[in-house]
Specification:
Arc Repressor Mutant, subunit A; about 270 residues; 9 strands; globular; 3 domains; Jelly Rolls; four-stranded antiparallel sheet
Length: about 270
C-alpha cells in the first residue's frame, strides 16, 4: 500500500534553487506564493517565523516552510553560514491537502534525518561544485529530499494529528489511501471500517480523534480539493463532477459552495485576477 504516491501525483512539488554558498546578513522573505526550503550546510543561522519567534540553528539543519509565509534568515560574518535554498511550488496551489497536513514550518538537524543523508550529501556536492546541469540536478534533489522527509514524518509519527497522523496509522492509512485512490467511489463508513479491520463505531471514533473530522467530511474535502485542482487545469465541471463522485455538475457546485463559500466559477475568477 503506497500512502504517498497518489498524493504526490495530484499535488506534485516543483523546486527551484535560488541560493547556494555563503550567507551573511539579513534576508526577509515575503509571503509571496511559494514555500521555501533552506539547508544549512555549516555554520550558524537564526530563523525568525512570522510570529517573530527566533530559532537558532547551530548545526547542519533543514528548514522547510511548506506554505507561503513571511520569515527571516539572519547570520553574521562570524557565523560562517553556508546555505542552499529553493522555492517550492505545488500543483493544485499552496493550500492543498498535502501542504495543509504539515505544520507551518519544520526545522530538523540533519543528524535526525538518517534516511536523507545520502541525498543531502549529493545535493551539497552539486551546490558547491561546478558540474554542468547543476541547477536542474539541484532542483530534482530538493524535490526528492521533500519526498524523503514526508516518508520520515510518516514513519516516525512526528505529526500527532491530521492527515499525516492518519497515514502513519497502520489501520486508518488503508482507508485514507483507498479514498485518495478512488475519490469517485460511493464510500460508506462501513466500507472504510472494513478496510481498517475495525468495527464501524470504533473506526468512526478513532478517525475523528486522529484527523479531527469525520470520514464523510474528509472524503468531501478531498473531492473538493481535487475539483479545485482540475478547475485550475481548465477541465469542464461536468467531467470533474463525474471524476470526483458527484452525480451532476450542480451537485458538485452545491457541495463546493457549502465548503468553500462561493461557487466554482466565482472561485476561478478569484484565481485569475
Amino acid at each position: 500500500m503506497d500512502r504517498l504516491s497518489t498524493l504526490l501525483k495530484h499535488f506534485n512539488l516543483h523546486a527551484a534553487t535560488y541560493h547556494q554558498g555563503g550567507f551573511c546578513g539579513v534576508t526577509d522573505i515575503s509571503k509571496g506564493s511559494y514555500g521555501h526550503v533552506h539547508l544549512l550546510r555549516s555554520g550558524r543561522l537564526c530563523f525568525r517565523d512570522e510570529q517573530h519567534q527566533i530559532i537558532e540553528l547551530t548545526e547542519p539543519s533543514l528548514v522547510l516552510v511548506v506554505r507561503p509565509q513571511e520569515h527571516r534568515l539572519v547570520a553574521t560574518e562570524a557565523d560562517e553560514a553556508e546555505l542552499v535554498c529553493a522555492t517550492l511550488r505545488f500543483d493544485g496551489g499552496a493550500d492543498n491537502p498535502l501542504t495543509l497536513a504539515l505544520p507551518p514550518y519544520i526545522i530538523k538537524p540533519l543528524r535526525e534525518l538518517p534516511g536523507l543523508l545520502g541525498n543531502l550529501e549529493w545535493l551539497f556536492e552539486e551546490a558547491f561544485g561546478d558540474e554542468c546541469g547543476r541547477d536542474v540536478v539541484l532542483n530534482r534533489l530538493f524535490e526528492l529530499m521533500v519526498i524523503q522527509l514526508l516518508r520520515h514524518l510518516i514513519a516516525s509519527r512526528d505529526i500527532a494529528s491530521g492527515m499525516m497522523a492518519g497515514l502513519a496509522n497502520p489501520r486508518l492509512s488503508r482507508a485514507l489511501t483507498s479514498m485518495h485512490n478512488e475519490p469517485g467511489r460511493n464510500w460508506s463508513v462501513a466500507d472504510l471500517a472494513s478496510l481498517a479491520t475495525m468495527s464501524r463505531a470504533s473506526f468512526a471514533a478513532h478517525f475523528r480523534q486522529t484527523l479531527g473530522i469525520t470520514p464523510a467530511d474528509y472524503l468531501t474535502n478531498w473531492r473538493i480539493s481535487l475539483a479545485q485542482k482540475r478547475l485550475r487545469e481548465g477541465r469542464p465541471i461536468a467531467l470533474i463532477a463525474d471524476e470526483v463522485g458527484y452525480e451532476s455538475p450542480s451537485a458538485l457546485a452545491r457541495t463546493f459552495r457549502r465548503k468553500v463559500g462561493i461557487s466554482p466559477s466565482e472561485w476561478m475568477q478569484g484565481k485569475t485576477v
